[in-house]
Amino acid sequence: MNRPRTLSVGLVSFAFALVVAAASPGCSLYAGGDTFQCETDDDCAARGPDFAGTGCAKAGPSAGFCIDEKPRNVTGECTENADCVDIKGPGSVCATGGDDVARCVQVLTEECPVLIGNPFVEGTQIYGIVGDVTPSDPGYSRDYAHLAGAEVALDELQAGRGIELPEKRRIALVGCSQSRPRSTGAHLVALGAKAIVGPTDEGALLRIAERTVPAKIPVVTGSFGNDSASTVPTSTSYVTLSGPSRENVVSLLNAYIADVAQDVKGPLGSARVAVVVGKGRELLGQLLAERLSFNGKTAIVNQNDPGCGNCYRAIDASKLGAAQIADQLAAFGPTVVIPLMDTSWGATILPMVESRLAAATTKPLYLHPVLAEEDPGYRVLAGADPAFRRRFVGLWPSRDEGAFASFRERYRRATAKREGAPGPEPTLAAARAYDATTMLFYASFAALRRAPDAPLSGASVASAIADVTAKGARRIGPGPVEALDAIGELNKGAGAKIDFDGLFSNYEAGTNRTVPTRWQIFCIDGFGRFTGTPRTLVDGGGFEGGQAGLCR
């Protein structure tokens, strides 16, 4: 606790002090009879050598007295967490929100019920992680993985490697629901959060950014979708998107269909494309109708062109059962099927479609973009049927296979329910939360190295993101092995930089902090393993590297 500095006192004063101490709990003992000691730091210096190095407290129980470790530029009802036990009770912290006024704030609330780490230790920095984090949220099963990915990152850094921020500060995560984004954003601002991982829903991103961007809190989200926060003033300085945008996915599909155009022509000499639109992918389905290009024209023009047999169809999977979807696909006779679904396609719908098309002369190419999580059901068919393997192409955000295999093992070990039974496979949401948490930890470290005498703030973390994603600096990959190298580089001085490259997030953002996704085109071998080489989608709409064409 920050203690008031007292003048040297004689035996009479000392005896009086003992009486006062016996009657007064806590550490609010002011010898010498002062009702207050100061209004400014200069008042403390003027009190003589006993007050050397002290400053005038403007907030909390010691307000008006000269104390050691004076809080910087803070006014309000508290100076440290210990002050808040009497004011708000256990579970509260002394937080400086967007107005730089220190208040006692309860950490956990109805909208923010999850805690990773211990925010009550003095000096701990609070960060938020936002998604469907409570069992009542609709995407809880998915976003539990989002939470777990962040927790793995924090544990590896702070517990596994013993890495702390300068001055022995640590990070704690407060997990909040995105189903009430305005309340969540307001609470994280009140807590003085230094950064936020998530949300996973682009609609919630806007509502949260409306609260957090004015408070200069950076938000890093790896969710699929577009930057809904772009309408918020100055958001480009505080919102970073590392997941694929809808436009990026359309460009990817157009580029690959152009690569295989000669291989996907039907009996009428034209490609016939069917898109199966799952729940939550409606906006992407609409964009595909307008911008997906094959046969030299857009999808909607193909759909209304009798010359090719009305050769585009979008099927709304949210309104149909698996058998109905399979029936519609079989009746349409596609040469290309694009399933915009993260689950249920490979294990349930795909076998039905293949069964119905068993006697068909022309069978479709399945072009499967993985947007949030893999649906591995198609691997069963792939392992049993070489002819099918040549008709399946996966499109996955590019990754370092070795780094991802190591992360998968660590993640499954960390999420295991019981010893000897590994936890679930990590989703893309888990991997991107891992990336974002690691990157923000490094950015926080860099910010404190930039200005060691200044308090950490959301603005300083946001500014330091450029220092830890600096193209041309030493590349730092994901994982605990490289963490010590990252800290070693950042400890070299205020101008030190690294180029952190995550499992799926390279963070080489443009001026609007939107990171273009690098895609890997993969095939499947007879053992159900991915094969193929990464191909990078470039601005012109084509690919660099890799091998063009179908799986062989």
How does this structure look, described?
Helix content is 34%, strand content 16%. It is elongated and about 95 Å long. Strand 16 (336-340), helix 11 (345-356) and strand 17 form a beta-alpha-beta unit. Helix 7 packs across helix 8. The protein is an alpha/beta fold.
Record the SSE blueprint.
Elements: H1 11-23, H2 41-45, E1 55-56, E2 66-67, E3 75-76, H3 84-87, E4 92-96, E5 101-106, E6 114-116, E7 125-131, H4 140-160, E8 171-177, H5 181-190, E9 196-197, H6 202-212, E10 219-221, E11 239-241, H7 246-259, E12 273-277, H8 282-291, E13 293-294, E14 297-298, H9 299-303, E15 312-316, H10 322-332, E16 336-340, H11 345-356, E17 365-369, H12 378-384, H13 386-389, E18 392-397, H14 401-414, H15 428-450, H16 458-468, E19 474-476, H17 480-490, E20 498-500, E21 519-524, E22 530-531, E23 536-537, E24 543-544
Parallel strand pairs: 3-5, 7-8, 7-9, 9-10, 10-11, 12-15, 12-16, 16-17, 17-18, 19-20
Antiparallel strand pairs: 1-2, 4-5, 6-8, 13-14, 18-21, 21-22, 23-24
Please state how the strands of the largest beta sheet are arranged side by side. 15-12-16-17-18-21-22
Helix content: 25-40%
Strand-pairing-aware structural class:
alpha/beta
Overall form: elongated
Gyration radius (Cα, Å) is 29 Å
Mean model confidence by pLDDT? 85
Biggest sheet details: 7 strands, mixed
Number of strands: 24
Cα(first) to Cα(last) distance is 69 Å
Note the total helix count.
17
Strand content: 15-25%
**Unreliable spans:** 7-33
